[in-house]
Write a structure and sequence with these properties.
This is peptidoglycan glycosyltransferase. It holds the Pfam family Transpeptidase. One of its GO terms (biological process) is proteolysis. This protein folds into three domains: 239 residues, Penicillin binding protein transpeptidase fold; 319 residues, DD-peptidase/beta-lactamase superfamily (Beta-lactamase), CATH 3.40.710.10; 83 residues, Immunoglobulin-like, CATH 2.60.40. 35% of the residues lie in helices and 15% in strands. It is built from 22 helices and 21 strands. A hairpin with a 5-residue loop joins strand 10 and strand 11. Helix 5 packs across helix 7, helix 9 packs across helix 10 and helix 10 packs antiparallel against helix 11. The longest helix is centred in the first third of the chain and has 17 residues. The chain is elongated and about 120 Å long. The termini are far apart.
Length: 675
């Protein structure tokens, strides 16, 4: 009978103060309210407002900020009808409900119905107070009356929606909907709304993960009451009662965890990113599926952006954020690594701009030395004289170093900085190896560089937060004509066998020194993407090549962004499209002086058949400037030769192409058959 006496005493008190208006008014006016502003989980959302990731507040509590328009109106209709049907008519305390509860309690000898209003429940939640003692109940009454004076009904409902307990570490209707229902509460079925109404009445004994049957029974009771009250049809109450109740927790969204961490590290609260949740989800799945076929110590990162706006649409820092085996928590889109050959397109574009070369210019791929630096091709072979176009498509090292020497490494470094990148040099002044990846850059920076190439040579700063204006420095790194020439060359590189998009994507792969990093970057008419694969600790990955390892991921990422890729743009009007023969004389060939004496192989004659012997094959030269280097089928046989007569150590049998290169880079060749 103690609970009934408590209700009776409360009713007498309320009746007394109700007839002492002045005293009541002063009592309420002097009420010191508890804190009304509460911490909420930091949230990171995509460009459409979809939740990407949320973070608990202190003590590991989930409490999500919520507004009225984020919750299905059916929830509030049920809540008021079930908990406090005169909510909009009383001033915080429902005297009629209290008197009714007292009468029922005296008649039955126990509490049959409660008298606590929603406002009183909010008062209890604000103070985390007790309801079973006289002083606690009176304090709730006082705070409830004060809340009604100082806040609107909607503001009181908002506090309930934020603070109502839902079991465990879950508070508020939005966190409850995400965790128990696996969805935002914007659209709820009658059964879902009823569950969210029922749980706060006994949050621990009705927790769906521990007491699913109790949660279901409470939910069904709410639905039957709502059918009696006309809130929902009786048929809906009976049909939805058959739906199973949730039996466990749904995980909170964990999309773009690395970028979400970057955002929250700046400040708490809500963050709106330029990412697209659907595309982000798809590329995270792509990273996981591809990584599952690799050494588990390897990580993989992807950045995809709209190169027309500069907005990053997806960013995958690793295949598995929680993996300890490959340091999944490390965001490899932000790690400085050697970009390998992926810087070569910029070098060629700068050479086009400076009038040093044209795509049809002939350039030498022959042994060369700059002081103590003697660059080598990746495969150790030499192709002699070939077009600049072909040299870039084959990703040869020697031609690009020749161009870098003519440009000046400092000029290349300035171009990188002009594109908004922050290159990290290990030494002091930049050297010729800069064009082969001798610099530290991040995947996000490299994607930004390629966005500029795709955007007509204009630096395109990438942005990932909606609040950023996107009005950063947009200097002209390359002319539009040179950028288009680079695009045309790269779009003619055959794609991976599984891609099936030849000519629709301009792309370039790269492999850093020692096979530490495998890269692939490219763009279509709308999107630009970059892929990196390697070990986070920077140790070598034997046999890793960008073309074989990263390129298939690049093409699949672009395909998922746009199954029908936008066409690459047309050439600007000023673009010079012609053959080598029609180029100006100074652009027809890059390399030795025009007045240099031509180098010729006079013996053996081209097409000759010779008898192989252990002494080798005599080779006679005319012209050229010693010292000479002699090669057989691209492999160096000897260097530093100064006599015009050479004995090449060939013993056959078979066809052999003999090439000789002089100190000016001129070459001569002959093909013979040894028997």
């Amino acid at each position: 009978m103690s609970s009934v006496r408590l209700l009776l005493a409360l009713a007498v008190t309320l009746w007394t103060v109700a007839f002492g208006n002045d005293r009541l008014s002063q009592w309420v006016a002097t009420t010191e309210l508890p804190v009304l502003v509460h911490a909420t989980s930091s949230e990171v959302r995509d460009r459409h407002g979809e939740l990407l990731r949320a973070y608990t507040i202190e003590d590991g509590l989930w409490r999500m900020a919520v507004t009225r328009d984020q919750v299905d109106p059916l929830f509030y209709e049920m809540l008021i009808a079930y908990e406090d049907k005169r909510f909009y008519r009383h001033g915080g305390v429902d005297l009629l409900a209290t008197l009714r509860a007292v009468a029922q309690g005296l008649r039955e000898g126990r509490i049959v119905s409660g008298a606590s209003t929603l406002t009183m429940q909010v008062a209890r939640l604000l103070e985390d107070g007790t309801t079973g003692q006289w002083q606690g109940k009176l304090r709730q009454v006082r705070v409830a009356l004060a809340l009604e004076r100082r806040m609107s009904k909607d503001e009181i409902l908002a506090l309930y929606s934020l603070l109502a307990p839902y079991g465990g570490n879950v508070e508020g209707v939005r966190a409850a909907s995400l965790i128990w229902l696996g969805k935002e509460p914007r659209r709820l079925t009658p059964a879902e709304a009823a569950l969210l109404v029922a749980l706060p009445q006994a949050p621990e004994s009705r927790r769906p993960d521990r007491h699913p049957e109790a949660a279901r029974d409470a939910r069904n009771r709410v639905m039957l009451r709502m059918a009696d009250a006309g809130v929902i049809p009786l048929t809906a109450a009976h049909s939805d009662a058959l739906d199973p109740s949730p039996k466990g927790r749904h995980p909170m969204p964990q999309l773009a965890p690395h970028m979400a961490d970057r955002a929250v590290a700046r400040r708490d609260g809500r963050h709106d990113l330029t990412l697209d949740a659907g595309l982000q989800r798809s590329l995270e799945a792509l990273a996981r599926s591809h990584a599952a076929r690799l050494d588990p110590r390897l990580s993989l990162a992807i950045v995809l952006a709209d190169h027309q706006t500069g907005e990053i649409l997806a960013s995958v820092g690793s295949p598995d954020y929680a993996s300890a085996q490959n340091d999944g928590f490390v965001d490899m889109t932000q790690a400085q690594r050697s970009p390998g050959s992926t810087l070569k397109p910029l070098v060629y574009g700068l050479a086009f701009d400076r009038g040093l070369a044209h795509p049809e210019t002939l350039i030498l791929d022959t042994p060369v030395q700059f002081g103590s630096y003697a660059p080598q091709n990746f495969d150790g072979q030499y192709r002699g004289e070939l077009s600049v176009r072909r040299a870039l498509q084959l990703s040869l090292n020697i031609p690009v170093v020749r161009l870098t020497e003519a440009l000046g490494p400092a000029h290349l470094l300035a171009a990188l900085k002009g594109a908004g990148l922050k290159p990290a040099l290990q030494g002091g002044a930049p050297g010729l190896a800069l064009s082969l990846g001798g610099v530290g850059l991040t995947l996000e920076e490299m994607t930004q560089l390629y966005a500029g190439l795709a955007h007509g040579g204009i630096a395109r700063p990438l942005r990932w937060r909606v609040e950023d204006s996107g009005e950063g420095a947009q200097g002209q790194v390359l002319s539009a004509a040179s950028a288009w020439q680079v695009q045309r060359i790269l779009s003619d590189i055959p794609p991976p066998p599984t891609a099936g998009t030849a000519g629709q994507v301009a792309w370039k792969s790269g492999t850093s020194y020692g096979h530490r990093d495998a890269w692939a970057l490219g763009w279509d008419g709308r999107h630009v993407a970059g892929v990196w694969i390697g070990r986070p600790d920077g140790t070598p990955v034997p046999g890793a090549f960008g073309a074989g390892l990263a390129a298939p991921v690049l093409f699949e990422a672009l395909h998922r962004a746009s199954p029908r890729p936008a066409p690459l743009g047309p050439p600007p009007p000023e673009t010079l499209i012609t053959t080598n023969a029609k180029l100006p004389a100074n652009l027809q060939r890059f390399g030795p002086r025009a007045d240099a004496v031509a180098l010729q192989v006079t013996f053996p004659p081209n097409g000759a058949t010779l008898q192989a012997n252990e002494m080798g094959v005599p080779v006679k030269l005319r012209g050229g400037t010693p010292p000479f280097t002699i090669l057989a089928n691209g492999a160096v046989l000897a260097t530093g030769l100064r006599r015009p007569q050479i004995l090449a150590p060939l013993s056959g049998p078979g066809f052999t192409t003999i090439s000789v290169i002089d100190s000016l880079g001129q070459s001569g060749r002959t093909t013979i058959e040894l028997r």
